[in-house]
């Protein structure tokens, strides 16, 4: 099932967007998602710094 979340404080690091939302049970989650075509990278993190680190080190696969 896909989650429809409302994101706040969205920033962009290269092709990756990092946003903050409320996840399960009202806990704050930080998501990093790549917006490049055919990449598909997306991950949830407990801290904003971890999501920003993942965004800054992400490299899209060569196709």
UniProtKB/TrEMBL annotation:
<dbReference type="InterPro" id="IPR007806">
    <property type="entry name" value="SpdB"/>
</dbReference>
<dbReference type="Pfam" id="PF05122">
    <property type="entry name" value="SpdB"/>
</dbReference>
<protein>
    <submittedName>
        <fullName>Mobile element transfer protein</fullName>
    </submittedName>
</protein>
